[in-house]
Amino acid sequence: MIVSHMAESAALAAAQLPSMANMIPAPTTSVNPASPSTMLPSFGFTQEQVACVCEVLQQSGNIERLGRFLWSLPACEHLQKNESVLKAKSLVAFHRGNFKELYRILESHNFSPASHSKLQALWLKAHYIEAERLRGRPLGAVGKYRIRRKFPLPRTIWDGEETSYCFKEKSRNILREWYAHNPYPSPREKRELAEGTGLTTTQVSNWFKNRRQRDRARSKRKGRNSKNIINIGSRCFRVSYYKFNVR
């Protein structure tokens, strides 16, 4: 009930951003700005409420309004270090093409694991875009792989576990083991695999589809190689037979 009420309050505040600083009078007593529930001086909202507004605007995709809201925030050190505020600033910097600012934010704060996935996506996409601008053409799979090697994820948004094409190695191992058992999982099994690996059902489906395609291509190559060996062998046999039987 409390969480729902906070979300409703945040949504209401987000809808009334232009005048939100005047909605609640500034406190006249001494405050501790480090406390998330303490009213921010001359602003009228707590850190928790500011964080809620940031999250609501990020989820709505309204980047322009999010940028205006961030610009209106007071220069409070504790507020500027709030993770929701920093995530919002990262998203705004990305959409404005200010990649240097994006990298600075991502490298200067140790974000919680729950935020890693989205922030990793911003880091990689920004580097892909910069590389494409320099080369004047879209990056292929190999090009993106080289960018990931050249600009590894900072430890501030990465738990240190080895990744492969943005899939954690333990997730890939789970998928490999299941593939060896059954290359064609049912929709229900795909959902279970998604829950067990932390991936989406679409990612799981695409992984199995791509793996089956690679295996089929590998089988075709092996089949062609076997035919070539047989053909070469038969030609050698015919040449040898002709050599020793022609008088």
Question: What labels would you give this structure?
Answer:
single chain; 2 strands; developmental protein; 247 residues; 2% strand; RNA polymerase II cis-regulatory region sequence-specific DNA binding; elongated; DNA-binding; two-stranded antiparallel sheet; mainly alpha; Homeobox_CS
Describe the protein.
- The chain is mainly alpha-helical and 247 residues long.
- It has helices spanning 2-15, 47-60, 63-72, 77-80, 83-95, 99-108, 113-135, 141-150, 169-181, 187-197, 201-245; strands at 163-164, 167-168.
- The N and C termini lie far apart (102 Å).
- The model is unreliable at 1-7 and 17-31 (pLDDT under 50).
Mean pLDDT: 79
Strand content: under 5%
- Enumerate how many helices there are, as a single number: 11
Assembly state of the chains shown = single chain
Q: Ranges with pLDDT <50 over ≥5 residues?
A: 1-7, 17-31
Strand order of the largest sheet: 1-2
Family: Belongs to the SIX/Sine oculis homeobox family.
Protein name: Homeobox protein six1b
Keywords: Developmental protein, DNA-binding, Homeobox, Nucleus
Subcellular location: Nucleus
Short description:
With 247 residues, this protein is an all-alpha fold. It has helices at residues 2-15, 47-60, 63-72, 77-80, 83-95, 99-108, 113-135, 141-150, 169-181, 187-197, 201-245; strands at residues 163-164, 167-168.
